[in-house]
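step: validate -> pass
step: tokenize input -> pass
step: predict -> running
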Amino acid sequence: MSRTMHAPLGAARRYAARGTLAVSSAALALALTAGSAPLASPAAAATGCAGAEADFNGDGIRDTAIADTDATVNGASKAGVVHIVYGGGKGTFELTQESAKAGASEAGDGFGYSLAVYDADLDGCADLAIGIPYEDVGGRPDAGRAVVVYGSPAGLAAGKASIQYLQGAAPLSGAAEAYDWTGYSLAAGKSSTGVPFLAIGAPGEDLGTTPDAGGVIYVSGSSTVSIGIINQDTATAGAVPDTAEPYDRFGASIAATPTHLAISSPGEAQGNVVDAGAVTVFSHTLVSGVPTPLNVITQDSPNVFGVCETGDGFGTSIAAVPYRAEGATSTTESLLVVGIPGEERTTTQDSGGVEVFRLNAAGGFQETEYVDQATTGVSGTATSGDHFGQRVVAVNTAPDSVSTPENTRMAVGIPGKESTSGVVDRGQVQILPLVGPPGESDVLLGPGYGMPTPAATRQYAGMSLGSSTAGLYVGLPYGPAEGRAVYLFPWNVGSAGAPIQTFKPGEGGIPAGTSTFGTAVR
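step: predict -> pass
step: emit ->
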């Protein structure tokens, strides 16, 4: 039962199902909000650290992290490993819990289930946050934890010691509980005031007698950090505009920009409508380490397309990017992308959909588009079981410029899509503009077209997506072993376009014989 959330497709349905994951665990000590905790002092800018995006060794060239969560490590099945591919042909590195100096690899840990990249200590070298949601802690199964592995001119895990975030160990207090799934989701970056932050989702967290209400650990700062805990009953920085209920799973997905932090609860019930879903928006303004709540969005919110329906899973996956309107002199707004993989059309079930919202600095929102494969002008056809929106990612390649269809894009995973020749659950990825008509420059990618991997049953293409200014990463961790790969596509790829880079087990220094290579990629 503890591994149900790890299933490749149908995860949203099983993940939100009442009873399926109604596991018992003790409540989080929500007084967990801690004061400042000193860490190692950061260098003003470590020698050789250029400050480039996802540059772990500081040479000014982007590097890539690729997870294989089911990999066997030191005889431990499904312990997980993260493969690091250094840019510029500078080699590879196999990051395990041992090489990260973050404990021992154990069976079923799922090391690398979630990944986030940011400069945690402001030294100019990128650092890698890794979620381990199925880690057992003190005999408590699947309590989970997260670890930050620091970059350096010599690469990851070659400089300062990694730091772990788990309940009951400094800099956190409280206690780890069974089935919290701490580290199931991650978001990281730098606020508009230049402060690094990391948000860690624990969607299985119980609150008192409320099972699986969920929570998020918010880490802010560089040389000195503050720790805050957010849940739907938190009032430290003002009342969160919602209430913790059983199986909300607040923290299942997290997205952030320098202005906003968004946290989803796809199991949220709206009245008697179960698993309808919601997304709560915060600012990075802190009170005792806790971000300030601004608003909550559901499909029953005013001027939002559709209505809350059972099993929609609004917020199963979310993404956010900075947004600048024509005439604006600064970037204080965001675009929020919300996946709704259980959304139903009149004649389809679980075909899915995506909604895009424009957020102002105060948290006010305006829906800018609803899109699915039945939207006028959009490629493809909406069919039952597609799960359009099971995964969403987005990018703004020019955040200090006016947002346009060229520089502001999103990718939507459609892992249940069947091929035209009847290959079941082959999956698909659709790239669309975030600004302007969604069908104006949309592109479909999938195994056998765009992806140089033959179509096969249950590849679930679209379950693993990664966003960067360099392009869109698409992982194929499922299906035939010979098809496992990660592809990097330009965001403005043409309909007949090919990947600009391919990562494949057994090639380019990446070890052969991987298990689920590409479950997460950054």
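step: describe -> The two ends are 28 Å apart (CA to CA).
step: cleanup -> pass
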